Amino acid sequence: MKNLRIVASLALAASFGQASALDLLADYQKATAYDPTFQTAVAERQANQATANQAYTAYAPSASFNNTRIQTDAANRTTISVTQPLLNYEALSTFKQAEPRQGFAEATFVVKQQDLATRLLKAANAIILANENIKLNNAKITALNQQYFAAKKKLELGQGTITDLRDIEVKAAQAKSAQIGFKNQLDIAAKQYAAITGERPNVAEFVLTEQHGKVALKQVQDYIDLALQNNPAILVTKFSERVSELDVQKATGAFLPTFSATYTDSKSGTTNNRYTGVVVNLPLGASAYFARQGSEANYLKAKETRRDSEEKTRVDVEKLRSQIDTGFESLAIQLDAIKAAELSVEANTKSYEGGVRSAVDVLNATQTVFQVKSEYVTSVTTQTENLLSLMNLTSTNPQESLEVAYKYLFAR
């Protein structure tokens, strides 16, 4: 009888640990300096910024130096020329593209930062799930061993059945086999985390607290308004649309005359010619017409892409807000289920001692405790990922969004 009481106590003791010492925000900073995928984003940002800076020079003066000598010359012929655009609609449109290109570079980079935060959180959740499954399954193995010895003793006293003993042996073997898989999952999850941060984590720190409360959330429409204003993915499409609009203007400028001031100093031997003037260029070419048509089509595409991004964002915000509300309610119900499952173990144990229930009934009740606790951990990690997704949709600061999810995950 004492062994059966131990089984019940093991089921009740298989709860969550204390708050961990894990600092997910510090690991995020490590990841920004190490993660290979993010490093490509850093390089991409630099390239986009260079393109923006190049656009700023569209109206800058240009200079050339030429030094030649041909057979009919007695000395080298040196020419220095400086040209300053005065009126050039195409160059002006290129200059105007600098600002949206700069915005595009920054918004694209924020999207990559958010992706890094999401990948890091998912990697942390994978370790948490593996850790909890190992702990719960280990408690289940211990409980099965105790149940086995209790059933064996009852069989020796003529009070039990060989069927109970064999059923327990089968479940114990299954649990031991599952433990190998859980440990392998933990090792893989730790390696995936290290691939992001550059350091293998201390998996013992990835432990959840027993309960998780709620996060104060805004109304759905408030989040939609914030998302339409701040969502970096939408900002990317807006900047792309503006660049495409200016591309149409550039293509139009290819039809218009350009005016440039020029200064030329040409010297050959003792002859020195200097002159300053205005150069007028009247472009003629059928290709410019078709180029403009292509630019107009790309502009229309960019507009629809931006509109599509806004519509999808509205739907995503509403969906996530609803899922988070449902998640809070579901977690509260699951906590009640855990308490009910623990009471069921105690009741089945007493009934077994009284000869009303079988050993398998106690075993099944104990299994239920571990199952509902595992489901609770899965729900908590899913809820955390939903929170991060909602924050990312409505903010341009990935670290602040990650902090909200981190504090909820570890109840800080």
Structure description:
It contains eleven helices and four strands. It is of the alpha+beta class and 412 residues long. It has a single domain (2-409), classed as Outer membrane efflux proteins (OEP) (Up-down Bundle). A four-stranded antiparallel β-sheet has the order 1-2-3-4. α8 (232-253) packs antiparallel against α9.
List keywords for this structure.
four-stranded antiparallel sheet; Outer membrane efflux proteins (OEP); elongated; 4 strands; 412 residues; alpha+beta; single chain
> Helices and strands: which structural class?
alpha+beta
- What is the number of helices? 11
Helix content: over 70%
Assigned CATH superfamily? Outer membrane efflux proteins (OEP)
Sheet with the most strands: spatial strand order: 1-2-3-4
What would the CATH topology be?
Answer: Outer membrane efflux proteins (OEP)
The profile of the biggest β sheet is: 4 strands, antiparallel
Overall mean pLDDT score?
Answer: 86
Helix-strand pattern: HHHEEHHHHHEEHHH
CATH architecture: Up-down Bundle
Low-confidence stretches: 6-14
Percentage of residues in DSSP E strands: 5-15%
Distance between the termini: 41 Å
- Taken from the alpha-carbon principal axes, the silhouette is elongated
Number of domains: 1
CATH class: Mainly Alpha
- Total strand count, please? 4
Cα-atom Rg, whole angstroms?
35 Å
Summary?
The chain has 412 residues and is an alpha+beta fold. The chain is built from 11 helices and 4 strands, in the order αααββαααααββααα. The protein is 72% helix and 10% strand.
